Amino acid sequence: MLPEKYPTDSWTNVPPTILAQYGRRLHVQPNHPLSITRKLIESRFPGFRNHNDLPGIVTVHQNFDSLGFTADHPGRSRNDTYYINKDTLLRTHTSAHEVDVFKANTSNGYTISADVYRRDAVDRSHYPIFHQMEGALTWDRSDFKTRQACVDQITTDFEKLPKHDLVVEDPNPSFHAERNPLQEKHHTPEEAEIIGAHLKRSLEDMVVTIFTEADKALAAAGQGSQAEQEPLKVRWVEAFFPHTSPSWELEVWWRGDWLEVLGCGVIDQPLLVRADVPDRIGWAFGIGLERIAMLLFGIPDIRLFWSKDARFLSQFDEGKPIRRFQAFSKHPAAPRDVSFWLPKSNAPVVANTPAAASSAPSPAGGQQTEPSLDGAAPVFHENDLMEIARNTAGDDVEDVKLIDDFVHPKTGRRSLCYRITYRSLEKTLTTEEANALHERISQELVSDFGVQLR
Ligand code: DAH
């Protein structure tokens, strides 16, 4: 529940179901797979200060402005973000604390692990609350006589990093004027180059640790070691984040697919100026913990992390080597379709962008919808259905997917059909139970968005 009373206004869109989960702090719950994953990553950054208790309610300023997000950045949309009120929200990423932690200036390196909140799709890898870890390392140029001496120190630190025999594809230059610029006003090419190299090597080391553990767990479960067939392989992809430049994403070749694992880059210098540490230079990254934990333990559905069922929780032991999760039961799925005509006034529906890594910002989750002022039915966005489904069916909804979308050639009206798959993790849903949930969701679409069921 909310620790304090916050005034609400026309921006408020946090549903009670989210508030009910607020404060579960799975990432520090002993023997929880998210906590084990967090500790495994933290162990690769010795000497870093680990912040695991930062509260999830932050200001719009902390979450967006302090990081240099533009005023029209799509992440600010009420379709994508849970607002407590116009100025206050549930953090959408751990980066929201970067400036504050830099300002406190208590360590060169830090991690921040925490729960983060996003309105998003309903499926087995998306949940409106998930966990991220932020990491950053900086060097203070004022500790050195010359800028070159600082570069030399970073170089020495780089050379001391653990070596690995990972196959690394990194085809792009360290920075590129149009695609991935050096912060020319603030960094020399040598500075950006060595910070980037230190960043990449550090994160490659982390990935080796994670994927070696995952591979051992697979082999121990008799599911075949990937490493025996082909060596572990990663690639660096150019990216964009408001708070870093140059920026990259790291992808890992895992069981036949490139998997996006994290976002990172050379910290935006104006951000460090805003944090009153203008002489510090360095790198930062952000990683989604669920995705890593799912792959480490072989957890098939993101809802399981929230389970209080001993059959789930008893399978994890932080003192022991990582073992694959054993599914304890699989109850039958109950799919139901809902088709409806949108009201004429509805602007084009914006669908969610396909499953981005949970660490990555959902680039253009939706159109910017201001609260409706004229009392008209609110405009329908796909995430509204996601939320109605979660609020009504809780963790008994597994997946919501658009399966049909067409415009009537004569009337110009638009019809959508969604398939909602109900499945409980704990029991078999009866036909009546699934029907009742579906009926409530359908009726709510009618009453909240003025759609016409078909
Ligand atoms: N905050 C980003 C997100 O949630 C992830 C991220 C990217 C964090 C780059 C960083 C970074 O610190 O440098 O999508």
Please provide a written account of the structure.
It catalyses: tRNA(Phe) + L-phenylalanine + ATP = L-phenylalanyl-tRNA(Phe) + AMP + diphosphate + H(+). Belongs to the class-II aminoacyl-tRNA synthetase family. By secondary structure, the chain is an alpha+beta fold. The chain folds into 2 domains: 16-313, Bira Bifunctional Protein, Domain 2 (BirA Bifunctional Protein, domain 2), CATH 3.30.930.10; 334-453, Alpha-Beta Plaits (2-Layer Sandwich). It is 28% helix and 23% strand. It is built from 12 helices and 15 strands. It has helices at residues 16-21, 33-42, 60-63, 98-104, 147-160, 189-220, 226-229, 269-274, 289-297, 310-313, 382-393, 431-449, and strands at residues 49-51, 57-59, 83-85, 88-90, 109-117, 129-140, 167-169, 233-241, 244-254, 257-267, 280-288, 334-341, 397-407, 414-422, 452-453. The strands form 3 sheets. An 8-stranded mixed sheet has the order 1-5-6-11-10-9-8-7. Helix 6 packs parallel to helix 9 and helix 11 packs across helix 12 (431-449). The structure holds 3,4-dihydroxyphenylalanine. 3,4-dihydroxyphenylalanine is lined by residues 93, 95, 134, 241, 243-244, 263-265, 284-286, 359-361.
**How much beta, percentage-wise?**
15-25%
Indicate the CATH topology of the largest domain.
BirA Bifunctional Protein, domain 2
What is the CATH class designation of the largest domain? Answer: Alpha Beta
Number of distinct helices: 12
GO biological process, one term: phenylalanyl-tRNA aminoacylation
Domain FDX-ACB: 329-454
Region (Disordered): 352-374
Domain Aminoacyl-transfer RNA synthetases class-II family profile: 114-321
